User: Which sequence fits this backbone?
C-alpha cells in the first residue's frame, strides 16, 4: 500500500511574498512527477488563482463548500490538460466577487469552527478516498481565521518570507506563537532574495545559517529574486513553460525536500 | 399549631401574614429572574465555541484531543486514542474535561460514549 499523501499549506506573515507563485509551481512540479495533485486557493480576502490560471466560467467555489452548500467534489476543476505534462492537476477556487469577499470576512466564530471541521475532513476524503498525493493550499497572509484553520488542518506548513526586517520579525513571532502550539512540521522559504547576496556558495550558506538561527526552523530554500518572473506577472506556470530556468530547478529541490519532510 | 391558634383568634392577622409571605416570595422570584437574565447575557458574550482561537488558548494536552475531535466530527475515547497515540483512559479523561468546559457534548449509545462538537 502506498504511503498516504500530504497536505501542504503555504503561508506568510506579510502579503506579496510569493505564496501563490510558489504554490502553483510546486503543484505543477509534483504533477509533472506523475503525482495526483490538488491546489486550493484559500485566500478568501484576495483570491488570485482564477486570474493567475485564466479560468473562466466557474460554477462552484470553495466558499460554497465551507458554507456547507455543496460537496467538495463539485468545486474541483481538472486543469491537467495544457498545464502539465503528466500526472493530474486539479484546482479549487475562492470566489473573487466583492460580495463573496465581504461575506467571508463577516463570518462568526461558530462558522469558523464548522469551516475548521470541513477542512480537517479533507484529509480523509482527498488523501484516502480520492487518492490524491498532494493537497496544496495557498492561504491568506497573517494571523486570521482562514489561514490558521488551514495551517491547523495541514501536515506541513511552508512559510514564505522575504528579507524585509518587519517580515522577518513578524514571521519569527508568528511561527513561535502559532505553529509551535499546533506542533506543525514547518519550513521557511526565503523568497525574493537579491541575487548578489547569495551569488556565492559561501554567501548562501552564511545567509541560511543566519536565518535558521533567527527563526529556529529549517530554511528549505533561498529563492533569488528573478526579474523575468516578476515581468511575467505570475500569470503562468513557470516550471512548465521554462523547464531549464533556475527557478524551475529550485522548485524541484523544494518538492524533493517536502517529500522527505 | 401556632397558625391554628392565630386563625382562631384573628382572621385579619392571618390575611396580613399571608400577604407578607406573598410579598417576600415575589421579591425572591424577581431576584431569581434577574440572576437568570444576567447569566444568559454572560453566556452569550463568551460562547463555548471550539474554534482555532479557543484551540490556541487550551493547554497542549487538551488541544491535541480537541483538534482530533474536530477532524473526526464524533468519536469514542478509543477512536481518539488511535489518532493521538495516547492511552484510551487518558483520552477519556481529556474528553470529559472538554465536556465539563462546555466545548464538547457526550452521548451514550449502548455501552459506548460518543463525544462530539455541537454545531
Assistant:
Amino acid at each position: 500500500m502506498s504511503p498516504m499523501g500530504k497536505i501542504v499549506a503555504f503561508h506568510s506573515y506579510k502579503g506579496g511574498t510569493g505564496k501563490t507563485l510558489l504554490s502553483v509551481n510546486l503543484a505543477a512540479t509534483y504533477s509533472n512527477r506523475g503525482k495526483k495533485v490538488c491546489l486550493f486557493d484559500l485566500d478568501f480576502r484576495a483570491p488570485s488563482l482564477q486570474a493567475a490560471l485564466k479560468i473562466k466560467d466557474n460554477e462552484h467555489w470553495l466558499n460554497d463548500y465551507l458554507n456547507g452548500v455543496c460537496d467538495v467534489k463539485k468545486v474541483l476543476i481538472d486543469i491537467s490538460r495544457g498545464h502539465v505534462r503528466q500526472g493530474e492537476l486539479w484546482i479549487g477556487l475562492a470566489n473573487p466577487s466583492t460580495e463573496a469577499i465581504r461575506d467571508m470576512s463577516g463570518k462568526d466564530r461558530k462558522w469558523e469552527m464548522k469551516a475548521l471541521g470541513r477542512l480537517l475532513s479533507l484529509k480523509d476524503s482527498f488523501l484516502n478516498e480520492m487518492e490524491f498525493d498532494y493537497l496544496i493550499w495557498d492561504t491568506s497572509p497573517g494571523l486570521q481565521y482562514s489561514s490558521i484553520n488551514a495551517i491547523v488542518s495541514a501536515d506541513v506548513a511552508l512559510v514564505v518570507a522575504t528579507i524585509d526586517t518587519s517580515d522577518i520579525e513578524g514571521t519569527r513571532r508568528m511561527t513561535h506563537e502559532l505553529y509551535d502550539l499546533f506542533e506543525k512540521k514547518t519550513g521557511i522559504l526565503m523568497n525574493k532574495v537579491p541575487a548578489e547576496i547569495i551569488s556565492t556558495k559561501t554567501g548562501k550558506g552564511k545567509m541560511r545559517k543566519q536565518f535558521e538561527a533567527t527563526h529556529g526552523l529549517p530554511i528549505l530554500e533561498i529563492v533569488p529574486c528573478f526579474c523575468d518572473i516578476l515581468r511575467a506577472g505570475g500569470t503562468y506556470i513557470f516550471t512548465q513553460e521554462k523547464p531549464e530556468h533556475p527557478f524551475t530547478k529550485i522548485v524541484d529541490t523544494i518538492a524533493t525536500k517536502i517529500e522527505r519532510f | 399549631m401556632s397558625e391554628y391558634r392565630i386563625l382562631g383568634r384573628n382572621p385579619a392577622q392571618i390575611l396580613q401574614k399571608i400577604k407578607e409571605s406573598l410579598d417576600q416570595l415575589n421579591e425572591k422570584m424577581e431576584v431569581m429572574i434577574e440572576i437568570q437574565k444576567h447569566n444568559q447575557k454572560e453566556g452569550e458574550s463568551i460562547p463555548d465555541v471550539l474554534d482555532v482561537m479557543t484551540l490556541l488558548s487550551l493547554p497542549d494536552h487538551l488541544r491535541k484531543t480537541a483538534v482530533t475531535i474536530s477532524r473526526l466530527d464524533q468519536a469514542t475515547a478509543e477512536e481518539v486514542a488511535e489518532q493521538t497515540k495516547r492511552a484510551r483512559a487518558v483520552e477519556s479523561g481529556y474528553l470529559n474535561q472538554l465536556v465539563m468546559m462546555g466545548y464538547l457534548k457526550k452521548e451514550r449509545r449502548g455501552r459506548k460514549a460518543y463525544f462530539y462538537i455541537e454545531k
